[in-house]
Amino acid sequence: MFSIPYKRVGRHLHSPSLFPLPEPFLPKTFRPVCIEDILMKFFAGHLKQFIASVFGSLVLASSAHAATLLTNGSFESPIVPVGSFSSFPVGSSAITGWTVVGPAGTSVSPVSGTFAQNGVAFIAQDGAQWLDLTGFNINSTEGVSQTVATTVGNLYQLSFFVGNTTGGGIFGTTSTVNVSLNGVQSFSDINSTVSPVAQNWQQFTHTFVATSASTTLALLNGDPVSDNNNGLDNVVLLDLGPAVGAIPEPDTYAMLLGGLSLLGFMLRRRKKNVVAQRFSTAYTSPALADFRCVGYRLSGC
Q: How many structural domains comprise the chain?
């Protein structure tokens, strides 16, 4: 490194003729660095890191809730005979995590995904089994329920698949599932997809805000007595966190606003004071020629 002495004359920089330098040592272009540029880059970089860390924390907080709160949502337990089904009456808790609910004398049936009848293949949507809300030949408004711990004011997302077939002659043309929360019917979903040779699955998604420390979720058959198939599978309940959104700490707001204010101030200042982009050098002999501020205002020139 070397330094080039100079003095200011008017609005131009001149090098003293007493300090000639060999031509190979003279750089063709000089780019002065403004302190505002340095500060702006510094704070902009740190602000980006700060914002990234805030959003990263929010993502991590959200992912902490991304596990289903329900037990046995795909009805894989108990295991039923391959290619067949098993029926459980109202009041039974033999289906792991669930209780069969509905009028006396009705039932629901976990079904093997390899079961077939009347030319229709009843495949599962998830795993090896699914649940038939119509039970076996005696169906009404029966279904299954499960109680989970919830946080008052939190937003929850419920999703599930409804299975339907239009074939077979005895399985109806639509499948309807009614959802109740704490004994109150809240949603009703219908799969009316035309599917004559295989059970077709359609997903439905709903959200609700918890109003108590526990919530009893019930999924009930909505098909008529003559309909002998109403599939249910892959039931998932997620806690999405506070319904209004988490409130950041005051320190977080202060740091974010302070950084944005400083960055805005620097941008306004930079717009008012255009910094010289380059120094042009012109030299003819070993002596150092003039350096000029070309067309820009430079503090100190």
A: 1
